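Person: Please comment on this record:
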Amino acid sequence: MAGAEAHVGAYHFDQFRLDVERGTLLGPGESVLTVRPKAFALLRYLVENPGRLHGRTELLETLWPGVVVTDDSLTQCISDLRHAFGDRAPHVLRTVPRRGYMLTATVSTDTTAPEPPQAPPLPIAASGRAGLLILEPFAHFGDEAAADVAAVLSTELLTELTRFEGIRVAAAPQTETADAYRIRGEVRLAGRTLRITARLEDAARGAALWAERLDLPRGTTELPAGVPAGVVQRLSAALVHKAEQEDLRRARQKPQSALSVRELCLLGKEHQQRGNEADTLVALDLFQQAVAADPNYALAYAWLAFTVQRVDTYGWGPPAAAKGGRDRALACARRAVELDPDSPLCLSRLAYALLLHRRWDEAVMTARAALRAGRPTDYASLNTCAEVLGHGGYPDEAIEAFQQALSLDPHCPPMTRSLLGRALVLAGKPEEALPELRWAAAHLPDYVPSFHSLVVAAVETGRMEAARAALREAVRLLPHWEPRNYTGPWYFRRASDVERFETAFRAAGLADMRIDPPDDNGTGQRKPRRSVDRGPTTPSTPAAQRANDLTAMRPAGTA
């Protein structure tokens, strides 16, 4: 777009490449070098400012804004980088005793040049915001009942799919086939059942991407022509999910300059849901690009709001990463709702932003409005609404919403099970929470909230070794974290919830346990964080110890 700055995709120095789009450090021969998120953030800062001496105070304030940490934290990051560089470390990184550090290697960049000015600039087409599904009328073979079911399915599917966010639906015939998908189906009499088959195809090539088969007993009368309630909803959700997965696969193969705003958001969503620092910062960059490319795309603002919130909550990335913090998240969420007032995703993001500002009643009311929006609610929206309800003092409603997400969409990411586990904890059901949290911790090992909730569930069910193991994992992932309400990963309305988490973490071995109260002025701005002596739990967990910890958390009888 006119006036846009070139985007840096990667930095080359010595024999290494820092790929900021994928959040990876590559060594000789394109080998992937593993570094922790803070070490990655330090290296990115150094390559963005090469050939200059950086004092320790400057680096500490850049990497841990508003956090009181010791020099050992920075020393560990430098040690991680030297280990990754190996024999090339002296040629890349220089230590100036008692003064600081300098990246001495010559740095070059891979950039994407901005588009030349267009006169007049053309608006982004609707196809850049939404995927296209072309629905063929369902064929039928057999008696009149099969014909009636086929007609009902064709009509109901068209209606249901039209209500999904980020999707355009057209009834065949449709000449537009580029990047589109075709839905074909049939209803066939098979003995005393009606067999429904549905296929999702690449519209341009005709290749089948997904298929489903359902058998309905004759004589069902829940809906006209024997179509049971829920069949259309489940079938629609599966078709949309498979189309989005194929769009995501295609987006990964495109140069970033060729991505539509929807593809930028699909890629950002994929990174955001991994729940770790490096992927979250990549997602932040992608959503910001989407908003810049199309300032009127509501879903881009919704996802940006949630990602800015996470960066602020955990203190991830350089200070500019979450500029404005929670206030910016609220502004983005409000803009999303202004652009699409009936969007469950946009409403859910606004609900969460209000939660972060401790506007409890507004947050709960907005979450309930999202659930009643009259449009299909995907797992991301259900998860967010449920989390707001749970933290806002209504954990039973939260559990119901999480269970709805899991029943309607079996493809929910592991984060859903983690959030369900926390809702069960808040509802006073730690025994039921344990299997959900253990499963989430095993499938999403970098998502800190799973381990926070697991500490509480394990302590309250008498599994102290599992509680200590979960705490070690939480500290490994966020070495300088300390428990806080309102200014960190916990946002609990009820004092009893805060007390339960505080008691459990102290029982599991976290020293100097005290949760900061909210700010007196209600602004929600961060307070300076205190250093905490965690005793033996502070050091990073070695690989062997981590394996033992995960074994302690694993449900009995599992491999």
